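Posted in: Structural Biology > Protein-Ligand Complexes

Title: Requesting predicted complex, adenosine-5'-triphosphate in pocket

I'd be grateful if someone could produce the 3D structure tokens for the following input. Sequence and ligand are given below.
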Amino acid sequence: MAGVLIERAGFLASLEGLLGEALDGSGRLVFLGGEAGVGKTTLAAALADAAAVPVRRGSCDNVTTAEALGPILDALPELIAAVDDEAGVSRLRLFRNVRGALSGSPMLLLLEDVHWADEATLDILRYLGRRLAGVRLMILATFRSEEVSRDHPLTVVMGDLAGLSGVVRMQLPPLTATGVRQLLDAAGSALDADAIFQRTGGNPFYLTEVLAAGAEQVPATVRDAVLARVARLSQAGRDAAAAASVLGRRAEVGFLAAVSGQPLTAVGECLDRGVLVADGDAVGFRHDLARPPRSPRPALPVSARTARPRSSSGWRCGITCRPTGSGPCFSSSYRTSAT
Ligand SMILES: Nc1ncnc2c1ncn2[C@@H]1O[C@H](COP(=O)(O)OP(=O)(O)OP(=O)(O)O)[C@@H](O)[C@H]1O
Ligand SMILES: [Mg+2]
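-- Reply #1 --
Done. Output follows.
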């Protein structure tokens, strides 16, 4: 089923059209909304795959404390020094520098999950949205619609930019009953498409979890689907999954095994059963929604529970804590429970 993109041809064509306009010098800022798991990241990845232009990526999450300009610096690490130099000086000068870096050459900038973005990132989107003319840049910013209430800062930014010619807002709907049937066919599933559509509301993430659960029992909710997948693991695998859930989206394999108090094979089992996916030498949940709910004080070995923060971005503990990618490998809730 991997690679099957259902009922998104029209959206992809629209995005490709906007990217073409951007590359012709009329920069575009696209806000792509939709419910959790509806396929925003998948669609953005399809655009990136098709784009004949360098792609930069930055993402926001709810696992680590939002860092000022975090997703922008993820995408453009070459700006880190400049941003540090400008700290506390002039925000306008900083924003000009960022715009300068983004205008240097044609680019597609993917900013994921901006409903969790820090204030400075939202401010820069507001700034850039008004200064897209003459820039060969398309910014595609995804967000979960249900997270964005009327008074959410992102709503305010989108409202401020509404009506500007370079700024576009798109809403991605769930799959239709026909789309659900196509997805089940593509997966070779014999499940009743109409019943599954009723149950899942056409949400692709939920659908993929239902397919993973097999035909015997269709999980009643996304949460049930996630818990059912984890419940099929051995105790060691469940411990590894629980530790991964606490640590956040990604963790180095050896570190995860050590924190969970289980051998590497327990992490391997999670990978084999699709609970975790590999990303270089790190592993993480294949999707934010696939992370089992965290208990307020997780059952972790004492060595892990007694870890103490070293700074806002790092940790002091007995085991090497290697940050993976952009964010530290501990979650903010773990910080609370560990201190
Ligand atoms: N159009 C589609 N056809 C088939 N499968 C899809 C489609 N869209 C998404 N999926 C599958 O659904 C799952 C969830 O998709 P995705 O991660 O893109 O959702 P999302 O909207 O980015 O969710 P979130 O709000 O949590 O970031 C993925 O496993 C993906 O493979
Ligand atoms: Mg996503």
